[in-house]
Structure prediction request, 794 residues.
Amino acid sequence: MWRRELAVSAPGKVILHGEHAVVLGKVALAVALDLRTFLRLRPGAEGRLSVSLPGVGVRRSWDSPGLRALRGRIAADEDESKSPSVEQLDALREFAGIAAGASAPESLATLAFLYMCLAISAKYGDVPSVEIVVWSELPTGAGLGSSAAYAVCLAAALLMVCGAISCPLQEGESTSRWTEEELTLINSWAFRGERVIHGNPSGVDNAVGTWGGALRYQAGKITPLKRVPTLRILLTNTKVPRSTKTLVAGVKEKILKFPAIMNPVLDSIDAISQECQSVLEAMPANPSPEHYPVLEEFFDINQHHLNVLGVGHPSLDRLCQVTASHSLHSKLTGAGGGGCGITLLPPDTSPLAVEAAKQDLCACGFECWETKIGAPGVTLHSCSSLSAQVLHALAQS
Amino acid sequence: MWRRELAVSAPGKVILHGEHAVVLGKVALAVALDLRTFLRLRPGAEGRLSVSLPGVGVRRSWDSPGLRALRGRIAADEDESKSPSVEQLDALREFAGIAAGASAPESLATLAFLYMCLAISAKYGDVPSVEIVVWSELPTGAGLGSSAAYAVCLAAALLMVCGAISCPLQEGESTSRWTEEELTLINSWAFRGERVIHGNPSGVDNAVGTWGGALRYQAGKITPLKRVPTLRILLTNTKVPRSTKTLVAGVKEKILKFPAIMNPVLDSIDAISQECQSVLEAMPANPSPEHYPVLEEFFDINQHHLNVLGVGHPSLDRLCQVTASHSLHSKLTGAGGGGCGITLLPPDTSPLAVEAAKQDLCACGFECWETKIGAPGVTLHSCSSLSAQVLHALAQS
Prediction:
């Protein structure tokens, strides 16, 4: 029986370099974004499991006997590599009253919750009697890994409640993290949760949510970087909607049309990712201000390359111009064609310049966060150590 | 004794693709610009040679005996590959009263005139008694090959007066051109004239001035393209001064700093030049409107690449934005860092859009010409066929 009130958080992610090129076998660098998803875990009424997602208006609760019966159907034929199966998801949908094909965030989030809860408890313990609330600082659907951060938080909380991993937070501590081995287990379950939401995710988002910092991704292989600095950024959402699938297809078409012109651009992007990795890994041991102009140069070059690939957008040009007028350097992040951009804030950036840049970006109709990259991965918190804003959001449920 | 009144014209040049990359062994495409330099040739008073350059305020005339005496000193030790030698130029400066090291356009233009006149007449005939006026539509010092157009006009006129090449213009014809063999001779003398002005020119500018159209340049080898279309463009001078030497050094520095990132960009530029050559050579036989979006795409990609090389400038960004707002595509041409940009005007561009773009560019403080590329090379004209504007300019002398 779970007795403590605790919180779990996991970061979002941004692609620092290598978006689009990664689809064609080049290196990408993904970094943890310090806009986090928070999960509050409390003992629940005996025999009740409840979940609230105030951001998407979900508030559900179920009796343990019903969940145990469902778990029998879910766990019957468990083959991890194929899980969740179509049959499992159909059974969960029927139980939760979610229409087949429903793709709204609240439906997918409820489905992922039920799936992870039942599959984890089937393997490691009984259906828990807990109250879970999840709220995120991350916007959804903006390519910032919000679903992975959700799945990582759920995996950590549920594995802990079922005793599959420890509860590393000592009395009086405000935060704590799990061992490498435990993180590997959290990541693998988060990946299965991601599959419920995304079908066929790359695994990068849940890896960033779990390990934090930065990681290198190439041809399906994910390698966390050893030590990386925390860097201040502005994250700006142009709010211009785009279709990742259409943008990816456009890049492929351009490469087929002009291979001799476009392939070298991919090679250059690959080299940017690799050089950037070297700079990031050199920074903790040698935190010289000289690294920042290099990182800024990489932003500028890659932003030009992404425009050459055809994934720019007038809103992103505007973003770059506005920040350049404050001597700051930006690039799109993720799919492009709108969506989000990141702006590096070197340590010597004056608070006034940051404030002015934010105001100008907001005046363009963009949404803008001052945050960090290279943030820690999944973390266990005492509730009293959370900020008032986060506590307030979690209390809305 | 020369008896006819005729005019010679030669075009300026712009680099279509490959600026900077050409310094590092990649292909560049240079094209003839239909902003031309005009030379009017008239019989002069017996025993007098005179030259007027109304654009730079030169009006000089010399007696034949003095020139013949000087010619003796100039021609004494003639080795074409070393000509003009330092001694020859020193003698010419002394004769013309030009201070050693004087680099003003009027000093260099006078020096080149005297050198070409004496060296050509020494080889092919007597010092001619003619009146020469040269005026250009080209701005000087803007990287548009104005000195080469001047040298080409002088070479053609002086070789014709001395009988080294024919006078191909029949009575009643308005324009005529020389044979391939004669053009080769004109080009070689124009190159020597260019050396007086520029010291160590590449030979591209005088080749474009002589042959017109377009030519490919790589590793010192100049190859005129077979058949190329005439394309309408806007040529815009941002009037931002720049140092070609500093810009070239900056590119080299960037390549040394990040070879793995920058070398692929040079490869991509090389491929753009080669693909563009293919498109240009395909256009005369198949003048489909589908070629234009491809040419525009090459402009956009190369403009991004040139920014990556570090030779962009806010004024050039502005130029590209302004023309993009009229759905037109632009790139810098030449050294960058300010200087000139070119904007393609596809055949379906409405006259209103062109006018609006020109007005907006002028409102930025830029100078803007509506002109053509792929223009004819050195041409002989009857004076009566010249436009009133050109005749007026030549009559100002």
